[in-house]
Specification:
The structure holds 2 protein chains of 2 kinds. By secondary structure, chain A is mainly β. Chain A has no helices and 11 strands. Classes of the chains: A mainly beta, B mainly beta.
């Protein structure tokens, strides 16, 4: 089956620093990748849609200058949390759609990255 | 953005009992999916039901979909302690490249 990996699985950083999270589709090409954020005991909230070779589309209320998304290849998307603050501490999950399949197939989710900002 | 509500928000049952969770959504969908998430872990895909389907089974899981009411239900039969987790429905729109939108989830606790 299709596999999506994320790295790192968890990270602790100091307030004011930047953190990069990688999302890779391991055995398929993903034209589109998605980034979600999940706070404790809450559901997944879509942050942005990332298309290979173009700018990401951010959901309302998500600061594009704070959450930088780069989708440089068909198998890699990165999310950089710039000038992180404690309120950015969350579980970040990426997902990808298989380029070879039409709409109507499930997205494949990464295992998530736990970010803690101290 | 989120599609809608899951009901109940929390459910506590004994092993062997059945658990039913409901999901409502707002817009037209191509399919609806159910996921499980253990505390602090990633998502596990359980089942996908397409908009032209009314019921689907997978092992101890039974999913129904009523597009006229924009609602779905997930039934877990003969529950086990290992079923303790959060369960989310997620809707998939018709446009290619659109993201799954998740409901708020139901937290299921199964005690032995």
């Amino acid at each position: 089956g299709a596999v999506v990996s994320q790295h790192p699985s968890w990270v602790i950083c100091k307030s004011g620093t930047s953190v990069k999270i990688e999302c890779r589709s391991l055995d398929f090409q993903a034209t589109t990748m998605f980034w979600y954020r999940q706070f404790p005991k809450q559901s997944l909230m879509l942050m942005a849609t990332s298309n290979e070779g173009s700018k990401a589309t951010y959901e309302q209320g998500v600061e594009k200058d704070k959450f930088l998304i780069n989708h440089a290849s068909l198998t890699l998307s990165t999310l950089t949390v710039t000038s992180a603050h404690p309120e950015d501490s969350s579980f970040y999950i990426c997902s990808a759609r298989d380029r070879g399949k039409a709409a109507g197939y499930e997205q494949y989710f990464g295992p998530g990255t736990r970010l803690t900002v101290t | 953005s989120q599609q809608g509500e899951e009901d109940p928000q929390a459910l506590s049952i004994q092993e062997g009992e059945n658990a039913t969770m409901n999901c409502s959504y707002k817009t037209s969908i191509n399919n609806l999916q159910w996921y499980r998430q253990n505390s602090g872990r990633g998502l596990v895909h359980l089942i996908l039901i397409r908009s032209n389907e009314r019921e689907k089974h997978s092992g101890r899981l039974r999913v129904t979909l009523d597009t006229s009411k924009k609602s779905s239900s997930l039934l877990i039969t003969a529950s086990r302690a290992a079923d303790t987790a959060s369960y989310f429905c997620a809707t998939d729109g018709y446009q290619a490249g659109t993201a799954l939108i998740f409901g708020k989830g139901t937290t299921l606790s199964v005690s032995s």
